[in-house]
Amino acid sequence: MNEQLEFWKGEFGNEYTARNSGDFDAMYEERFGISQTEINEKFLSVLPTDSKILEVGCNRGIQLGILKRMGFSDLTGIEINKSAIELAKEDKDLCILEGSALDLPFEDNSFDLVFTSGVLIHIAPENLPKAMKEIVRVSKKYIFGVEYFSEKCEEIEYRGNKNRLWKNNFPQVYLENNPNVKLAKSEQLKYQDGSGNVDVAFLFEKNA
User: Fold this and answer.
1) Can you give the C-alpha Rg of the chain in angstroms?
2) What are phi and psi for residue 79, nearest 5 degrees?
3) Are 174 and 132 spatial neighbours (Cβ–Cβ below 8 Å)?
4) Is CB count within 10 Å lower at the N or C end of the chain?
5) How far is CA 35 from the centre of its chain?
6) Domains (ranges, CATH) in the chain?
């Protein structure tokens, strides 16, 4: 168990889960001028609504709930924090399992789409290629993500903690470590608060 996983499994992860509530569509609309639902619609229109979908690091299942409201019906989440798992399981339409991005408990090609939202940013750079390889391994077709963006890896202090958050060019890291994927679509999402911060949404297609 590495230090980042221990951190998110413990009390800080519990506190994050308690904060991680509310209307994500409204939050994204305020931050980017576009809702989470609209971002999903732009990137996931290629998927039938009966597609098998996995979210890695689903926390309390808010993103999966948005996909459910969009009509997707086969939704699985994996999460390491037990408090978050219990909250996510309150939605009986979701399949929620305990586990880590570094060792996904699924067979190869198990899901039509595997995605992350603000999760890769919390994986230490030395562990990132392994997590990405696991995500690609269990995906049959697509990999989707929305993450903080920087042209190069940049550590950011996170609520007073070091070695817990990194901005990066995550699409490029995927390509560098997974020759069996190609970038189908990407879009930078600029913050509207004048901070200059940028997120990136991206969709990869796995080669047959």
Assistant:
1) 16
2) -155, 150
3) yes
4) C
5) 16
6) 3-206 (3.40.50.150)
